[in-house]
Amino acid sequence: MSTLNFVVVTVSTTCYDDPTKDRSGPALIKYLTDKSNGNIQWIHLASTVVPDNQTHLKETLLKLCDELQPNLILTTGGTGISPDDITPEATREVITKEIPGLAQTMIAKSLAITHMAMLSRPVCGIYQQTLIINLPGSSKGCVECLDFVYPVLRHATDLIQNRRVEVAMAHSTMQPKTNRKHHSCGEHHHHQHIESTTKGERLRQSPFPMISMDDAMKIIFEQAYKMSIIDKPLTECLNYICAEDIYAKEPFPPFRASIKDGYAIRLYSDRSHEQIYEVIGRSDAGGDDTNTLLIEGQCVVINTGAKLPDSANAVIQIEDTQVHERHATKHNGLDEKSIRIVSDCSLNQDIRDIGDDVQMGELVLQKNVPLGPAELGLLATVGLQTIHVYDKPRVVVLSTGNELMSIDAPLTDSGKIRDSNKIMLMSALKDLNIQHVIDGDTAKDDEISVIQTLQSAFELADIVISTGGVSMGDKDLIKSILTNRFNATIHFGRLQMKPGKPTTFATCEVNGKKKLFFGLPGNPVSALVSYWLLVVPTLKHMMGHIQPHHPIIRAQLNQPIDYLDPRPEYIRVIIEWSTKSSIPIARIVSPDNQCSSRLLSARRCTGLVRLPSKTDADPSFFNTKQDGYGQQVDCLLLSL
Questions:
Q1: Residue 180 included in any domain
Q2: Does residue 433 sit in the same domain as residue 328?
Q3: Nearest by Cα to 282 from 241, 238, 333, 329
Q4: What is the CATH number of the domain that holds 114?
Q5: What pLDDT, in 10s, does the model give residues 523-581?
Q6: Were 498 and a residue from 40, 88, 259, 569 both cysteine, which residue would form a disulfide, CB within 3.0 to 4.6 Å?
Q7: At what angle do helices 447-460 and 478-486 cross, to 10 degrees?
Q8: Model pTM?
């Protein structure tokens, strides 16, 4: 999906004096926003009304272009021949390249509606990377003229922004299907046809070297970048990563507080004195009646967490007291006149001093720590309302393949299958607390479809994840399109692992911003394992996790492994704890069939066991079985 933004400028002294009279500006806004669909989204940045003053309009256009940098500015009004009609003159002072064809089209088509169009003088042109179009002042005429030129607006902005991929796509769709030689003239000498990336003899061997998982992760982390640091309200920070060291600006508790429900007392200096205390008041949690002055032998009723009177020097819990004497009537809900303490009580007993929990200036949270419930509660305790956190990336998930159909479509004998990869990966991303997970649609196995789908994905996302199209088939177009159409760098295209050998990682720049691309295999288990091993650590790294990699535990297989693959293999297991074993048990999921197309082999999976390759395995690997179990292995912990 392409996203274009626009600004509307109404040129009219009458509307400048009373903006409520402006009908044309709102009509243009409605026209473009209504044009938003699955292929293009129009974003209204701003609207303004200026008087019929050439200098004022010129300065307004320049300011809008410099500050907002819109794709499109539409002016309405001031294109006629009266003395106040100055829009064309002001526009010519701004633009550096005029586009007369747009103005000529508007006039020619308007003449079919009204002969008054011959008196219109619209100017259209470019300033920096903004297209400026003059439209008539009437609400009907401005919308009609915009509609006349609308079919070329997207292509015009692509040309202005030098978006070569979109330009090539547009030109290719305009090429006639003929074997005649193409003739060009004038400004159109740069038009090009998208040549097939698959013509000629098919490759029999991949041009990409097979690299290890360790090398792959090193490459990815070298290319991945930390997300920007943003300021968020504490109430919205769950599962974000803290981006700053946080020190307490105040102690907690900020006052001496009671640890127990009971009585705040002033102990007798003579401990042999009979332990009977006069009850002279109460101190409730959150109450402000804490100025009671106690002398020896006096106390106040107190609740857990309540502030102690300054003169209190101990708290005795209610369980260690007896009522010694009662009042005839209740006062403040109590009738206790005096109490007797029936256990030993020491100085400062059951008192939380100021700063007992958190000292002023104490480091309460370190940078790169995930923000869970306890962390957010701690930050709220020390008075924070906002915090700096790492932003989360926007991730687009797309699929490729003519065989794919919607998950709600009925199966037929047409060779179609439901697109399970997309919902699987989008769900996995949401489970990782990625908030912006976008459905990037499904590309057919042809160049135009793949290019369009990738272009829309790159414009929307920081990271694009695709499944399919990265292996050795004649319909696997992803790698060639990335390099030929997006000028991408493919950092690796094959991995020494099973499943997931054709997994691809690339980077490119779109609209001045670096994009990361993961091309995962089309088989669902291969896609999921590659996601777990490569994408998850990358996302965590970008979001600021101090430990982005999966934790590794030592576990024992529930049954022996008698065969190893030439490549290191990641088998899916369920981690279990048993009283019969001193270490966790890794129960192999679907041990008889861990085929990469069989999602049943990933059901309830909580870990991945990396089996060594046949050539790298220690000779003793097959001899370490014991007590009816299999080998002891390292296991990547995915979840508990």
A1: no
A2: no
A3: 333
A4: 3.40.980.10
A5: 999 999 999 999 999 999 999 999 999 999 999 999 999 889 999 999 999 999 888 77
A6: 569
A7: 70
A8: 0.66
